[in-house]
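# nightly structure sweep
# worker-07 picked up a monomer target from the shared queue
# config: single-sequence mode, recycle default, output format = structure tokens
# input follows
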Amino acid sequence: MEKILETIEIETGKNPSASVIWMHGLGADGNDFVPIVNEIELDGAPAIRFVFPHAPMRPVTINNGSVMRAWYDVSFGDLEGQSRLADERGVRESQAHITALIEREARRGVAAQDIVLAGFSQGGAIALQTGLRHPQKLAGVMALSAYLPLAESLLQEAAPANKTTPIFMAHGTYDPVVPLMMGAGSMTLLTGLGYAVEWRQYPMPHSVCPEEIQDIGAWLQKILKA
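# output follows
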């Protein structure tokens, strides 16, 4: 059995019937998006368990090999639209970790169809990587300021069960870390493959803004109906 990552969990009510597994960005940890739970408007949604995993510690090339929490290694060129250079081994290891968390939620009584995979930056990349390949239908996939890793293998590996799963992608127009063209390019690719992508962009850098948080809440309410 895949080792279960350490997580921080917040439940919006008793006996949650839905879960959101939310991955942080490079160098952060599971605490990074915990405060957003109280900022999201979830009226009308069922009780939700928010699961914030901590990525494994690993050396990151773009940060001079410093060891930090990262879902995969990042090299120079990876964030210039050359996703073929992505650390495939790290991406697939993290995919396995998140799959294990989905399976744990099932054991706790939350079916895959009531689980959302979400993430920011690297975390959003892993949400897309895992969600589009997961053999059971998920409630949705959310990728914030992110891009599609290992895009060249998606056509062969995509799970038919998640071909119609709602996808929410959002990006800052002034993002100096993951350029807008990477997020928009991934959205265009996915739309071209027939995926239902809801796209938003905001006048912000590599971050999250109040309008985006409002849109996230509306999207979650829409796909996680009580």
